[in-house]
Amino acid sequence: MHRDETAPLNKYFSLPKVELHRHLEGSLRLSTMLDVARQHGVTVPISMLNLSGLVQVQEQDPLTFTNFLEKFKTLRLFYRSPKVIDRITREAVEDAAKDNIRYLELRFTPVALSRAEGFPLNDVMDWVMVSAAEAAKQHKIKVGLIASVNRHESVELAEQVAWLAAEHIKDGMVGMDLAGNEAEFSGRPFAGLLKEARQSGLHITIHAGEWGPAENVREAIEELNAERIGHGVRVMEDEEVVALARERCTVFEVCVTSNYQSGVVPALTDHPLPRMLNAGLMVTVNTDDPSVSRITLSHEYQHAGEDLNVPLDVLKQCVLNAAQSAFLADAEKEKLIESLKKEM
Hints:
50% of the residues lie in helices and 14% in strands. With 344 residues, the protein is α/β, with parallel strands linked by helices. Strands 1-2-3-4-5-6-7-8 form an 8-stranded parallel β-sheet. Strand 4 (173-179), helix 9 (191-199) and strand 5 (203-208) form a beta-alpha-beta unit.
């Protein structure tokens, strides 16, 4: 997946970027995991190479969503202390800043972070918010946080997260995300909760149309009040849903490498990103889980430009689409767009 020639990558690296879809739990550095394993006695291989096989997609891995999700079982062993959660949050923000990302929306799953050691949800959310805010200031990048809940878990659990997220809007919490197994679990039970979250001032993004059909994208737009769709690439299987998304100006958070590695698309060059753009959909480019996929956002733009032949001016528009679709107040959005245009 990685290229040796750095020249093409430099073109995409130097582009000022905006990322809307990145999971904190998929952003852990390997070196940090080894440190945590040593300090906390986590039983994982102590060599970088062997650990990589457990937590990152390898060339020889089967490209399936079960293999992709398997990596998170090991990753969940690492959230051992407030100090660890602080460190992984700071490093995720720093890595984004180093990749020329000007605005990052980092989503995290409070329930997953709390489970390793039974931390209270409220504490976990506080730790992530404080660390993200301090790191953003230090690395001169703007960061918004999105609290993620899973559709295969209880609505009651999601309600707790939603209440806490709404209380923290003033601290940089900008939205809620519904993720998890969409192939077997409908998002409908969460409709009421998401409506309340929206009324409380949180924005809504929904994982849909990745491992489930285009119908799930329709459900997310019409029944779950989604402003943005995480992935959504299977929308192209139904012209009516494409028309609905276009009419509603629904934004798609597309993650090219992740879709290939998890078996959503059979080959990188078959990714529907160009077709989505041609259909007039509002498309943004994102990493999903940079550590699991062993990529940066610059790599994603490089794949779009070099492997999918999306022209650079269209990719620049994707950056502006992301800024336009950020869960920010209008004035902040305008400021971000202006500064990006100037830099480009």
